[in-house]
Amino acid sequence: MTGPVELGVEPAPRRRRGVMPALWWVIGAVAAVGMFAMIASVIWPGQTVYLAPVFCAQPTDEAIVVSDTYTDGDGTSTNFALYCVGDRGQTIDEGWLRPFLLLWAAYLVVVAVVFSVVRLSRRPHRNTDQED
């Protein structure tokens, strides 16, 4: 048997439907920014030089990006690597994965800030200077 039902009252509370679309938006944004970061790092690999303060410490505090192009049976391939170089020729190979992931995170922060500013600017503002 079921209990009495009042008119206009739902027996179970409604589920919020805003979580799943927001989650899909976040996943899509992270993937799109990842693709953008990958394409940008192939077009301009030198942008990782600006990450030198994060990866390079004294005495190897100058960053350079080295590209290595080689040809094999499958075609031509190019690899990039971030090196920290010192005044006396010391080098530390930082690789490419960690600088790329940091670039991805930086681009994601920029996109999130722009999205937040646009969203806040489109929100209706209440006028607090109205007289009663």
- The Rg value, from CA coordinates, equals 26 Å
Mean pLDDT: 85
Number of strands: 3
What would the principal axes of the Cα set say about the shape? elongated
What is the percentage of strand-forming residues? 15-25%
Output the structural class.
alpha+beta
Question: Numbering strands along the chain, what is their spatial order in the largest sheet?
Answer: 1-2-3
Helix content: 40-55%
Number of helices: 3
Question: Roughly how many Å apart are the termini?
Answer: 55 Å
Low-confidence stretches: none
Q: How would you spell out the order of helices and strands?
A: HHEEEH
The biggest sheet, with number of strands, parallel, antiparallel or mixed sense and barrel status, is:
3 strands, antiparallel
Would you mind describing this structure in some detail?
The chain is α+β, with helices and mostly antiparallel strands and 132 residues long. It has helices at 19-43, 52-55, 97-122; strands at 62-72, 75-85, 91-95. Strand 1 and strand 2 form a beta hairpin. Helix 1 packs across helix 3 (97-122). It is elongated.
Task: Please write out the topology.
Elements: H1 19-43, H2 52-55, E1 62-72, E2 75-85, E3 91-95, H3 97-122
Antiparallel strand pairs: 1-2, 2-3
Helix pairs in contact: 1-3
